[in-house]
Amino acid sequence: MGQSLTIRVDPKGDRPPSEQIAAQVRFAIAAGVIEPGARLPSVRQLAVEALVNPNTVGKVWRDLEREGVLESRPGDGVFVAVAAPELCKDARDRELTARLGAWVNDARSAGLEEGELRELFERALAPRRLRRVGERS
Question: Is it true that domain 17-85 has CATH number 1.10.10.10?
Answer without folding.
Answer: yes
